[in-house]
Amino acid sequence: MPRPHVLLSAAVSLDGCLDDTGEGRLLLSGAEDFDRVDAIRAASDAILVGAGTLRADRPRLLVNSQERRAGRVADGRPAYPLKVTVSGSGELDPGDPFWTTGGERLVYTTDRGAAVARARLGDAARVVALGAAVDWAALLDDLGGRGVRRLMVEGGARVHTQLLRLGLADELRLAVAPLVVGEPDAPRLFGPGAYPGGPRGRMRVLGSEPVGDVIVTRYAPTAPGTTDGVTAADRHWLRLACDLAADCPPSETAFSVGAVVVAADGTELARGHSREGGDPVVHAEEAALAKLPGDDPRLATATVYSSLEPCAHRASRPKPCARLIVDAGVRRVVTAWREPDTFVPGADGIGVLAQAGVVVAEVPELAAAAILPNRHLVTPTVS
Ligand SMILES: Nc1nc(O)c(N)c(N[C@@H]2O[C@H](COP(=O)(O)O)[C@@H](O)[C@H]2O)n1
């Protein structure tokens, strides 16, 4: 099951604070912005907050608009999204309104915390143990398995920080309020640490709009992952590679493939697709790499995204794409679809890459998109 789309939602002051240090909660948003948040909740399958936020703010996490709840029901969904919290200790207060209002509730915790949470909450929530520590990737896999396609995360700072640092957030929707808190101890949205792409990595701006007196901007992380684990940004770039494959001139004798080369900071360096520019035999990865100088220093930390595993054998050129990638000095490849035996039986481009020390991450959930423009070339059992 695919992981849900993870949307981090937050409001901050101009100096990046979530709150001030005074009594009660600092109201950063006005009525229009609260209504915007209500609309995102209504469009989500689940809403998640950390246990710290639950204790501090006692949120109910409801969809307040009756019309929006009715719309959900008309679409065959529950009136309220699933409410999710994450707690290492399981020390949760059953008196909080979170447990007695709105939709069904789910607690993710540790093996140790599960017994505590079950004893405290009884029937108020389902409790899922994730091992010795809370494993965020496992949590998202579990939510995907429960049919959650859109997850809204409403904080707090620790949860936002962890999801962004792990590369598990697809989108950040940030409301910036026109005030400066100025207090050194006020809580800030993101804590210190190593974020994907490092301090110079830039996110992509998806859009921006004024809502009352706040400005809401939507960002998408772009910096590739660094391991064989797949991040949200990896999925974005690989989806683009699959879209490029769909744009290839059709062929009965070769696959349609798309490829994108992305620098460690999230900058797109080059893209290509099969048979690009009227060359009937050029491959996607080859076309993309050919657009970069061979000594481009960014290649050593770049990731190549290819809808199909890079080829291991070629008749039409001296070097297969797996070799071109190794020779370019690229150390990481992300791909959606292992090559079927249509043209070259037993082609193992992933093996060639791995043997040369290149990290390969596979995203089987995007295989269907990679296969789509090639469906006439594969047997029905493969597709
Ligand atoms: N990775 C990749 N990118 C493309 O754009 C492709 N067309 C292919 N096809 C595979 O490459 C091998 C044959 O290449 P030639 O036809 O000899 O150039 C074979 O393994 C095809 O399946 N791969």
Automatic annotation (TrEMBL):
Q: Which GO terms describe its molecular function?
A: 5-amino-6-(5-phosphoribosylamino)uracil reductase activity; diaminohydroxyphosphoribosylaminopyrimidine deaminase activity
Q: Which UniProt keywords apply?
A: NADP, Oxidoreductase
> In what residue span(s) does the CMP/dCMP-type deaminase domain sit?
232-353
Pathway, per UniProt?
A: Cofactor biosynthesis; riboflavin biosynthesis; 5-amino-6-(D-ribitylamino)uracil from GTP: step 2/4
Q: Please list the reactions this protein catalyses.
A: 5-amino-6-(5-phospho-D-ribitylamino)uracil + NADP(+) = 5-amino-6-(5-phospho-D-ribosylamino)uracil + NADPH + H(+); 2,5-diamino-6-hydroxy-4-(5-phosphoribosylamino)-pyrimidine + H2O + H(+) = 5-amino-6-(5-phospho-D-ribosylamino)uracil + NH4(+)
EC number(s) given by UniProt: 3.5.4.26
Q: Which InterPro entries match?
A: CMP_dCMP_dom, Cytidine_deaminase-like, DHFR-like_dom_sf, RibDG_C, Riboflavin_Biosynth_HTPR
**One Pfam family matching this protein:** RibD_C
GO biological process entries: riboflavin biosynthetic process
- What family is this protein classified in? In the N-terminal section; belongs to the cytidine and deoxycytidylate deaminase family. In the C-terminal section; belongs to the HTP reductase family.
According to its UniProt entry, the function of this protein is described as: Converts 2,5-diamino-6-(ribosylamino)-4(3h)-pyrimidinone 5'-phosphate into 5-amino-6-(ribosylamino)-2,4(1h,3h)-pyrimidinedione 5'-phosphate.
List, alphabetically, the PANTHER family matched.
2,5-DIAMINO-6-RIBOSYLAMINO-4(3H)-PYRIMIDINONE 5'-PHOSPHATE REDUCTASE, DIHYDROFOLATE REDUCTASE FAMILY PROTEIN (AFU_ORTHOLOGUE AFUA_8G06820)
By what name is this protein known? Answer: Riboflavin biosynthesis protein RibD
